[in-house]
Specification:
This protein has 199 residues and is an alpha/beta fold. The protein has one domain: 3-Layer(aba) Sandwich (Rossmann fold). It is built from eight helices and nine strands. The structure holds guanosine-5'-monophosphate.
Length: 199
């Protein structure tokens, strides 16, 4: 039986839209998914762990990685560098693992060119008011950073056209159900299952 390559699921959406919570719950329902840990120059928040949430590096190291072509994609997101290592993608997909990336739209567009077979999912807020409420409610950003994130959200929402799927996170359970449905449907595609079926 031939083992087929893993799927590349790319999730984007404005800061505060609930991507992280959705992704965490998704992993509880579908355990054989792998999270792509990004490299960042952002300082760790309380409770964030090296190698689990991010690989935290300084700007010199990040720029060295750029020069050495180590990134599949990278971008300056809300003032911090963030990027996905090529090795993270290649190693997982080659082993047939389904990899989930939670990255911004600039990075997703770069990946769309390199990995057109990827599945691109955009999570949108039901309204600007709800997005602002959620960002304020999580209390992880100061006022300046919060304004920067809201401004970026306008640009990000304009990039929906590059994505394959859109989920509006109005009701958490419904949004989670839609995300699960996308993952399961993509896994059920005929062309991907044929190598596993002996007729
Ligand atoms: P936070 O600073 O809240 O952890 O993440 C802010 C944003 O950075 C998230 O919306 C996420 O999409 C984006 N991000 C995280 N990792 C990467 C990455 O490796 N590449 C890109 N382009 N964006 C990332």
């Amino acid at each position: 039986m031939q083992k087929y390559k893993g799927h590349l699921f790319v999730i984007s959406g404005p800061s505060g839209v609930g991507k992280g919570t959705l992704r965490e719950k998704l992993f509880q329902y579908i355990p054989d998914l792998y999270y792509s840990v990004s490299v960042t120059t952002r300082k760790p928040r309380k409770n964030e762990e090296e190698g689990k949430d991010y690989f935290f590096v300084d700007e010199d190291k990040f720029k060295k990685y750029i020069k050495e072509d180590k990134f599949a994609e990278w971008a300056l997101v809300h003032g911090d560098y963030k990027g996905t290592l090529l090795t993270t993608i290649n190693q997982n997909l080659k082993q047939g693992k389904d990899l989930v990336l939670e990255i911004d739209v600039q990075g997703a567009i770069q990946l769309k060119n390199k990995f057109p077979e990827g599945i691109f999912i955009f999570i949108a807020p039901p309204s600007w008011e709800k997005l602002e409420d959620r960002l304020r409610g999580r209390k992880t950003e100061g006022e300046d950073d919060l304004k920067k994130r809201l401004k970026n959200a306008h640009y990000e929402l304009k990039q929906i056209k590059y994505y394959d799927y859109l989920i509006i996170n109005n009701h958490f359970e419904k949004a989670l159900e839609e995300l699960r449905a996308i993952i399961i449907s993509e896994r059920c595609r005929i062309k991907e299952q044929l190598p596993n079926v002996s007729l």
